[in-house]
Amino acid sequence: MTPAPALAPAALPAVRSLSPTRPLRWLVAGHHDLARAMGLSLTHGLVVMLGAVAIALLGWRHFGVLAGGYTGFLLVAPLLATGLYQISRRLAQGVEPTWADVRQAWRLSGALMRFAALLALIGTLWVGFSAVVVLAMSGEPWAGLQGFFSPRVLRSADFVARGHLFALWLLAGGLLAAWVFAISVVAIPMLLERRVPMSLAVLASVRAVGHNPVTMVVWAGLIFACTALGLLTLVGLIWFVPLLGHASWHAYTDLVDASAWPERR
Fold this sequence. Notes:
The chain is an all-alpha fold. It has helices spanning 22-36, 38-59, 63-80, 82-92, 99-105, 110-136, 144-148, 151-154, 157-161, 163-184, 187-193, 198-211, 213-233, 237-255; strands at 14-15, 256-257. Strands 1-2 form a two-stranded antiparallel ribbon. The radius of gyration is 20 Å and the shape is globular.
């Protein structure tokens, strides 16, 4: 078997430099797509909301699972938006999207399947790590969310002394989220649209972030803010999930030009 040829620099998708205000246009474009495919879009949001409710109910008695589950949600969110990317793609082609199009998007290619497995593994490990850290932060036993915030637990000497673990958890979560954002913001929609190797899609994603650091920080901040509002209200996820999913498709098409690679049908 002959080894796969190395990727030539000319084969890498071109990356555009964009203004820091550009993410606002992505949100507007995402809103337009949501309005044009309201039923399909809001159903995606409803499914995610039901998953978030399940995490909340479980976390009410197991706070470590709640903390890890919600932050893990942020890590796998780009994958959850695959169907929304396909809806925006079909709208851009001038075609009315259907559930058949959404199902087609979930018939993952080998590269997209490997990327999905990677994000799922990261999310699972993070939930476990979060549960251990939350448990270690308190020297007093507690049961569920109410018990974790009880005066007895919050005032315990061990909880105060081990507060640095919380800072470590935040730092680790922030770094992991930034890494996942950098490798996936362009990669997942590109793998959906184009027949490209996973390594090239990831490299294109990292290059897009590197070429537009301020713009991508703004975009990441908007994603975090909308997601936080959605998680705080839960019902808000029905709207914010499809809005961000559609907007992320427009971010991809705006950031890179992958037209040299064959289109996936």
